[in-house]
Each structure stands twice: as C-alpha cells, then as structure tokens.
Design goal:
- The protein has two domains: 162 residues, Bordetella uptake gene, domain 1 (D-Maltodextrin-Binding Protein, domain 2, 3-Layer(aba) Sandwich); 122 residues, Periplasmic binding protein-like II (D-Maltodextrin-Binding Protein, domain 2), CATH 3.40.190.10.
- α6 links the parallel β5 and β6.
- Strands 1, 2, 3, 4, 5, 6, 7, 8, 9 and 10 form a ten-stranded mixed sheet that branches.
- The termini are far apart.
- The longest helix has 33 residues.
- By secondary structure, it is of the alpha/beta class.
- The chain has eleven helices and ten strands.
Length: 337
Amino acid sequence: MTRSRRHALHAGLLALVTPALASLAGGLAALPARAQAPWPQRPIRLVLPFAAGGGSDALTRILAEALTPLLGQRVLVENITGAGGTIGTERVARADPDGHVLLLATNNLVTINPALYQGLTFDIPGGLAPVGLLWETAHVVVARPALPARSLAELRDMALARPRSLSFASGGTGTTTHLYGELFRHLTGADITHVAYRGNGPAIADVIAGHVDLMFDQIPNSAEHLRVGRVRALAVTTPGRHPALPEVPTAAEAGFPEMEGTSWAGMNAPRGTDPAILRRLNTAAGEALRDPAVVARIEALGAAPRSSTPEAYAALVASDLERWTRVIRAAGITANP
C-alpha cells in the first residue's frame, strides 16, 4: 500500500471515529455534573399548617427527627397557620418541586378543605404529589354519663323521637369531629344540634360538664376521660375493636358500617417533584415508622403508625375526598379561607 493510500485510509477512519469519541467525551463530562447535584442538597422544610404545641405538631416533630439521619439533611418543621390550614398547604403547592419543601397533610387539608372552602386559588389535591401515609387516629362516639342512650341505635331513636333535643360538640366547623356528627345525621335523618368549639379540648370539656350531649371525638382526646368515667363510649369507628377500648363495639357492629373510618396524616410534595425523590421519601418514612422507638413515641400520643405506597395513599385521598364532599354538600356546610 502506498503512503498516499495509507494516509487516505487513516483520514477516513479518523473521520468516522472522531464524532463517536466526541459524543462519549460529552457524556462522560456530564456525569460529574449530575453526581454533584444529589438530593437533598440542603435542609428540608416539612410544612405543618397548624400551630405548634398540638398533637399533630408533636407527631410531626417525631417524624422529622427520625427522617434527618435517613436523608442526610436536617428535616425542619415549619408551622404555617391560618385559614384552616389552606395557607400552609398553598405554600407547598406553589413551591419549587425540588424535594426540599414538603407538606405534612392531615385528611382535613386534602379531603375536607377542597369541599369546605369556597374560592381557593390553588388545586387540592391536584397540586400535590403523594408520598405516603404516615399515621392514623380513630374516632369514638362519647356521651355525657347521664344520657339515657347506651348505643348508636338508641341514640338515633332518641334523636328521631325528640328532634333538636340533643346536641353534639366538635372541635370546629369542618373538622372531622364535626363531619362524623354530620355523617350520623345524614345516615339517620336525626336532627341533632351542632355546637362548634375552638378545638377538641374545650368541646369534650363541655360534654363532661353536661352542657352538650355527645361528641364524635378522636380517641386520644377522650381516652383518659373514658378511663375514669367522665364520659361514656357508644361506638368506635375503626374496622375492628380498638385495643384501647376493647369493650366498645364498632360502628359496624352497632349497625352503622358507613361510619367506619379514621383521621390520618400523610406526606405530600409539590406536583412535578421527581418520582425518584418521592420514592426515596416514601422508603425513608417507612423505615422511620418501623423503628420501635419511633413507634412507641407515636403510640404514646394515641396515634398508630401506618405506611403505604404513594399509589395507595393517593387512592385513600381520592376515596375520602369523595366521601366528605358528599357529607359537606348534603349538610350545606361552607366556609371561607
């Protein structure tokens, strides 16, 4: 082969190889840039749209403390209150979807507020990406000790026989303690007067004092009062009997299966968050909620740790949203954020 032919062959091969080498070099050059941007890059803000000091705040801080070593960055609880939780929820829905701003979502926020509040300027729950379920608390129907009714059926019959003679307390309009009462009214046709308070504590206090007849309370709020006999339990809303109240029948056993359900909390991120980040958050939360020390602290506050896939959590949100929307519209309840 002559020198000129060898030169031409080398030139042709170089022309073929050079673009491939350039492409490979470009890909390799991009790898360090991706490796330099892991998640999380900075502390994570876990927004709780309720005031500090309550049960939800205590539970959220237990979770944040457990997630910090699992994620390699501090998880900071940020209480953003106002308008029934819609201000904090909107703050997360409008945040950058980079995984550094998250929402501790109670079922009030994502399954009740969308139907309750008129004129919301953002989409609940469509503006949020599901991470997973975290914990739940059960409800118990409690009555003042002197109330003659000893069961839900007797309560229904008494209310139907004497319309507006009975009253039930709640922690505020649109809370689950209100809506379980509205659900009972809807199912039975009973005309029972709703008395709204600024929180579950003042509400149960007036049931104990005999100023109000009953309350569809959360078990952690009533447990001690039940133990010492200040109020009497008629039924729990759990699927099976509650371990703290094994002698109390379930709503289904009492003939009201439609009242079965719990209050719960889950985690959400802004819509558009990378699915890989959502999966890592879900895995970390599940690991935290299996830690025996974390479980003990959560159960001591009257809640039960729960975990789920993002898909199962999204299905729960959709189911409860449909349920409470139906109850709210049937009762004609409205509120302004």
